[in-house]
Model the fold of this input.
Amino acid sequence: MKGAALFIAIFALALLIVPMIALNFETPAVNSAQTQIYRPGQEQDGGIQPEATQPEGAPEEEAREAETVQAEAEDGVASGSTSEHGVLSFNILNESTGRVETVALRDFVRGAVASEMPVSFHPEALKAQAVAAHTFALHNHMVQLENPDPALKGADFFADPANMLVYTTEERAKAFYGDNGDIYWDRICTAADSVVNYIMEYEDEPIVAAYHAISAGQTEDASNIWTGSAPYLQASDSEGDLLAPDYETQVTLPRETVGQAILAAYPEAQLPQNPENWFAGIQRSQSGYIIQVDVGGTDLHGKDIRALFSLRSHNVDISYIPSVDCFSFQVFGYGHGVGLSQYGADFLARQGYTFDEILRNYYTGVTLKQIAPGSVV
Done:
């Protein structure tokens, strides 16, 4: 499968695990081993916790709007283009039970949207999320066919439906939504079902449809974060993220805490006597994410800094405050910044973008196709 060798296994960042299907590749580094990714769980990266809030607009109006937009979108995205790929179900290793469960495609896509996005998001954003989740899951399925991982016990990927990680069930979602469970679940189903047969491809292969919660106004090029590159995961404008709640956050830590954390993780580091020089020679990508920083003579990537101090993003300004003997980490966005921005998608949808237009904004040069006829649900 084209491009499968580019991607490597996710790293464990327990404090940052959230329900979101996305990539986690190895930070570019010398001697970094390449293996294949096999879990479509959010890269423990800023995803959006689903929320049980009242969606805007009356359900009847939204249903009519969704039907109209879907009809308009299908005229522009299908064009008789059919993929050679597709499945009717996924085999998913349930992390809570340890059992492999076969989940029908429609149920997976519905459950993925419920786990990944607040129900209050615009229907077109929900649709975009559905296509991204479906595409990424299908990519993982194909990777496992070629190079199965024994740890998955024959499954395509891991998930934890009970905790709404990767996807969830109708029963669990309705319980989460409470009194409005039926209304909200219907809203999820309307969006997911309208695009359940769509996937994104690049050079006739399902893409690694990375996504994250909030960019810093421009998404990141995958090659700046992970070993290898994908031509469809380039930097793209996402200015709506600047309006997202908690777009900018601050973490303040005592100098002693910062020093201890650095030396515990990187004992070879030689921290200068002046704390103002602990983070030196910072280099950034065009999107503003840190791609290299000298920490006591040790070159680290921004993702290393993010993991070390449990930050929401590696687009961060670092400063030492002598008056209180603390470091300030001013963080912008939430997540690795690659691929679709969920808040950005919602912003674009509210500006009139259809789901296919949203996807093309974040995934460069992809083709939206309907899955193979034998897989259509």
